[in-house]
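hiii, so i know i said id send this last week but things got crazy w the move. better late than never?? heres the sequnce for the chain we talked about at the cafe, plus the structure i predicted for it. fair warning i was half asleep when i ran it
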Amino acid sequence: MRKLVGAVHGRLVFGRRIRAIADFIASGLETGDRVLDIGCGSGDLAWLLMQKVADTQFTGVDVLVRPDTRIPVAPYDGRTLPFDDRSFNAVILVDVLHHADDALAVVREASRVARRCVIIKDHVRTGYLAHKTLALMDWVGNAPHGVSCTYEYFSLPQWNEMFSDAGLTPVRSTRRIGLYPFPANLVFERDYHIGIVLEPAK
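okay and structure toks below
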């Protein structure tokens, strides 16, 4: 069943989703950036971003390092990054924080190692059906890869409090990333996603 779900998701959703996310993140990167991808998975997103933004260099960390990845990936305990302060121009976290045991600790570490920006794409819990819809999307996208799901999603006020606690200032955000085609977007996109660019304290 998991293999079937993975095949269908990969064929109908994954390609469009990763391109839409890459377009959003690329708008926050600069030529020559050194970028850390926290929870990078296969590295496919980083590889696509390297095609979009010239001379960028990507390093990945993940709690579950896959055997074949598009970028160098270091194992990571899900809490403390093995890098010095301000080691990267930019740090990206894509659908990672709702899997974290301590999301605030992860965001604080991202802020610590970033010089210019932290870019996050994640879910937002809003409205009556949000949690059930997000949980379904989570399971479909992650079960085939053996990724554990906590099914914990944050509201917009919770996100803002987390950013403030981590010393990050939002500079640009969107609730419409274009992840799904019509009519799937009416169910699975709505206001359930956020893309946000943040600046760490100087």
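btw Strands lie at 34-38, 57-62, 73-75, 88-94, 114-123, 168-174, 193-200. thought thatd interest u
miss u guys!!
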